Amino acid sequence: RVRFIVSSVWGFPTCRCGVCGETITLTCGIEEGGGSEWEYEWRRPDYYTPPNPRGSMMTSSVTGDYSCKGRLKDGGSTTEWSDAFTVKISGVPQPVLTVSPSWTSPGDSVTLTCSVEPPSAGWRFFWYQAVPELSLNYTYELLAGSTTGTEQDSYILHGQTHTAGYVCRAGRGDPVFYTLYSDVKFVWSGGVNPAASLTVSPHRLQHFSTESLSLSCEGNSAEWRVMKADESGFMSSCSYWGQMTGSTCNTTRASSGVYWCESATQSSNAANITTHSGDVILVSSVHPVTEGHSVTLGCTLRTKELLDEVDFYKNDKLLPNGVGGELFISAVTKSDEGFYKCRGRNSPPGLETLTSAESWLSVEREYE
Questions:
Q1: What keywords does the record list, in alphabetical order (predicted)?
Q2: C-alpha torsion angle, residues 327, 331, 332, 335 (rounded to 10)
């Protein structure tokens, strides 16, 4: 008995109603004794095709079972139907980018990883840096070595020194079918960049939820925008939640998120600001502290008063050297890095929650 083989390869991209997808090609051929004297008939989910000599067909949007059979052109013998080949059409592939680590110190290496949902094989990956476009959103510039894509689903950035956003997309086939771009993911740097710096006032990471907040941009640019990524990752500019005047953004109600400045060519250091509804907050440095330098942590009440009798904790362990409501470290080392919080020993009338939330104290090495 003569049997047929049904095989599939990725083919040309197609577009319908503005939505583009891949075309799958099904090819029918005779296992034994095939030749140009055969013509082929297809059975597909929505209709039969008349016999034709090409032996192949294309579909891009119909899920179901496909089979074929052949017959001699002179009207002679006819084969049986081939085994069915099942086509499953999935939704538009969506790339997902992750970055590790998301917070860096100068000189760190960062790994970008791109996956495609729903998962499937045969992709090459393209990597881009997100360049701020102040009047719009971002434009994307290919990273080195990414012109034709990479077989690997990861890309390593060496010597990361500043805050920057990245995207990826995937492609396969000839000509290439591309997915959409991924969402922008940022690699944050808290270290001050002289070409672009963010100043936070009041100068601390923790704020009361009813406080106003001022964020100022400085550096080698005449035009800036202040950006915020909230806890869900949604990004927005100052114009959505504050008032931008020159290079300063003012908001009457602080909210938690990562804040940074952008110009057409630079991104500033980032600050991970948190807001709290309790009665006390930790006063700690917005920027990483350089090794060998001093740092002072404090504890302040919602009433703006500093607490005098305070215990300080690092990684939930009580520290013995808090004096006069402050914790002073004269020469910071990398071992001082960690999560800090403060707790008032005596509770003033009407104040019940006298333990602050934690904030991360980052320590950087001094580079020449």
A1: Disulfide bond, Signal
A2: -100
> What does the pLDDT read at residue 1?
38
How far is it, in rounded angstroms, from Cα 187 to Cα 192?
A: 15
- What residue has token string 């074929």? 68
- Cα 103 to Cα 43, 55, 133, 256, 282: the distances in Å are 56, 56, 23, 17, 21
Per the listing, tokens 């599939």 go with: 8
Backbone angles phi, psi at 88, to 5 degrees: -120, 120
Which one, of 120, 132, 138, lies nearest residue 181 by Cα?
Answer: 138
CA distances from 224 to 92, 113, 165 (A): 36, 30, 16
Is-contact 133 89, C-beta < 8 A?
no
Locate 235 and state its tokens.
């990004």
Q: pLDDT at position 160, please?
A: 84
Closest CA to 14 of 87, 68, 123, 92: 92
Residues contacting 308, CB < 8 A, separation 6+:
324, 325
Bridge partners, 114 (sequence order): 97
- Residues 28 and 152: their CA atoms lie apart, in Å, by 33
Q: Distance between CA atoms of 46 and 180, rounded to whole angstroms?
A: 30
Question: Which position has the token pair 């990245």?
Answer: 166
Q: How many angstroms separate the Cα of 289 from the Cα of each of 29, 146, 273, 295, 362?
A: 70, 36, 16, 7, 6
The model's pLDDT over 134-172, given as tens digits with 9 standing for 90+, comes to: 777 899 999 999 999 999 999 999 988 889 999 999 999
Quote the pLDDT of residue 49: 65
Q: What are phi and psi of 335, to 5 degrees?
A: -70, -15
CA–CA separation, 31 vs 33, rounded Å? 7
State how far the Cα of 281 lies from the Cα of 305, in Å rounded to an integer.
11
